[in-house]
Amino acid sequence: MKTTISFSEMQAFVAVVTEESFTAAAERLETDKARVSRIVQRIEEKLGARLLNRSTRRLSVTEVGRDYFERVSSILAAAEAAEATVAQQSREPKGRLKITATPEFGTTRVDGWIATYLRTWPKVTVETVYSIRAVDIIHEGIDVAIRIGALQDSELSARKLGDITYGLYASPSYLKSAAPLHAVDDLKRHDLIMKTASGRAVWTLASGTSRRRSRRRRDARSTT
Q: Out of 34, 65, 125, 170, which could bridge 61 as a Cys pair, Cβ 3.0 to 4.6 Å?
């Protein structure tokens, strides 16, 4: 007799592996931990193989479980793609759209884009993952990833959304009491809050074709 594993069971298993926790998977699926645990146990019984190693402190995936996870993820992605195609053809998108971006850009720009999108397509549910870590787009089921900077080699489809430029700003009250500021080197005598990439406290200042690099002094503050 053939065993059949339902889509909902597959989704539960993928959630456990992705979240690395029965509790977190249950929250994601809006159910309870015991039910998710029973589903995974039922899958293992149907397959006749151990997919997860469980202990009181950690949860790990067996080699067989990892292979099953990869295949099931592909099946679910294909099913979601099929549903999305039908929804697109009906001209009324619905379902879940999972987006990732950096926390700063996500809260300042992406949130607004999502709000506008949902006013147009209210049947879509948007889930956001705002994180500075390198999110695994395939394994974590990400539909849209918004990134700033040079695009790494990838087989994923990409589209440029625009350009971001940075500038120097100071309040009039600060400038009244601060040291004169006429050249790049004068910045070393000022209190600075520097927006930098990857913690590198270095600015490259541009004026036309001219470029100057400015390093912060030791007591300046930097943010990433």
A: 65
- 144: phi then psi, degrees, rounded to nearest 5: -135, 125
Distance (Å, whole) CA 123 – CA 118? 8
Per-residue model confidence as pLDDT tens digits over 86-98: 767 667 778 899 9
- Give the pLDDT confidence of 134-160 residue by residue, as tens digits: 788 888 889 999 988 777 766 778 888
Six-digit token string for 166: 């940075």
Please tell me whether residue 162 adopts helix, strand or coil conformation: coil
Question: How open is the CA angle 134-110-20, to the nearest 5 degrees?
Answer: 35
* Shared-domain flag, residues 15 and 57: yes
HSE-up (13 A, CA, CB side) for residue 9: 15
CATH number of the domain to which 122 belongs: 3.40.190.10
Helix (H, G, I), strand (E, B) or coil at 161: coil
Pairing mode, strands 202-207 and 210-215? antiparallel
Whether 51 and 103 share a structural domain: no
Question: How many secondary structure helices (H) and strands (E) does the chain include?
Answer: 7, 9
Strands 193-195 and 221-223 come out as: parallel
Q: Which domain holds residue 65?
A: 7-76
pTM of the predicted model, to two decimals?
0.45
Question: Identity (one letter) of the amino acid at 203?
Answer: W
